[in-house]
Design brief:
Layout (H helix, E strand, L loop, with lengths): L1 E5 L8 H10 L4 E5 L24 H13 L3 E6 L9 H21 L3 E4 L9 H21 L3 E5 L20 H11 L3 E5 L2 H4 L5 H8 L3 E6 L1 E4 L1 H7 L9 E4 L8 H11 L4 E4 L10 H15 L5
Length: about 300
């Protein structure tokens, strides 16, 4: 295993600046944010571009890799998390076109994994979303296969309001759908597993790792704190809104000792990438850095 970070919080920094800081502070590998430069995505923790994949030549890709390696780091994945099942057709087409470019960029960079969402239209049922996914995703999976790149689907429900249940904006949030999509799309597609999303859904994290660990192509380390007062007030029918609070690893309810025990049992030896979405440590660059240091000190003892 190797400790890494998702570059998104360093929005105004260059990739080289992020790399220098990461290496100096115990993060030798990076998941590089790869949104379009003019995405207009106002969603929190989205829309950041540390790698411009438009017209990325082989020569420029080689230069980027050399710059990162010279600094003592590596790129373990590219991250672009759109909604390929968005109800607006133009939105879907734009997201899909860019995801195909990210896959091509990963191949040129010799980066084996692209991290993304399956997507969903929260207005329709999971089954309707799945049937829609079966028409959109084969081309993406085939494109990745042709370029020698694997796709890792993050298991985040992407629910931001109580009326977005049951599909949220990413249908791949629970084991039943994981089984379905992994069987449907084959070995090119796997999971980018984030244990924090299972806590508030009351899904057994260890069991999920033991069942699906062989299809973990990536692992994002984020924690979540359950606000018991908020849960008491709103109940589980509120879909976590108002009572599940993203935190840095070690500051929430994820049982990290059991998580790593299960990861070692299934033989996972890929990156452990910190996804920093902790509001308490995000208002300044200093706070962002402090948050990553807290996460490092929590996770580093488990990573060998």
């Amino acid at each position: 295993m190797q400790l890494g970070l998702l570059t998104v919080p360093f929005e105004s920094w260059t990739l080289n600046e992020v790399t220098d800081w990461a290496v100096a502070n115990g993060y030798p590998t990076l998941e590089v944010a790869s949104w379009p430069r003019s995405s207009g995505d106002s969603r929190r923790y989205a829309g950041v571009c540390h790698l411009d994949v438009d017209d990325l030549s082989k020569d420029r890709a080689s230069e980027i890799v050399d710059e990162v390696v010279t600094r003592g780091a590596s790129i373990c994945g590219l991250g672009f998390y759109p909604n390929l099942l968005h109800p607006d057709a133009d939105h879907r087409a734009s997201a899909k076109a860019h995801l195909l470019k990210v896959i091509e960029a990963a191949s040129r960079l010799d980066v084996g994994v692209v991290n993304t969402f399956m997507g969903a239209d929260h207005r329709v049922s999971l089954q309707e979303n799945w049937e829609h996914a079966r028409t959109i995703w084969p081309e993406v999976v085939s494109h990745a296969t042709d370029h020698g790149v694997r796709i890792a689907i993050e298991n985040c429900p992407m629910i931001f309001s109580a009326d977005e249940w049951p599909s949220g904006n990413n249908l791949a949030y629970a084991p039943a759908m994981w089984r379905t999509m992994l069987e449907e799309f084959g070995d090119t597609l796997g999971l980018n597993f984030d244990p924090s999303h299972l806590v508030w859904q009351m899904i057994d994290i260890e069991r999920a790792i033991l069942e699906f660990g062989e299809r973990f192509y990536f692992f994002q380390a984020k924690d979540v704190l359950i606000d018991r007062e908020g849960l008491y007030d709103h109940g589980i029918m509120s879909s976590g809104v108002g009572w599940q609070i993203p935190r840095l690893p070690g500051l929430g309810d994820v049982p990290w000792d059991r998580v790593f025990s299960a990861l070692y049992r299934v033989g996972y030896d890929g990156p452990i990438v910190v996804e920093h979405e902790d509001r308490q440590f995000e208002d300044t660059d200093e706070l962002i850095q402090r948050g990553f240091l807290l996460a490092r000190d929590q996770l580093a003892p488990w990573i060998h």
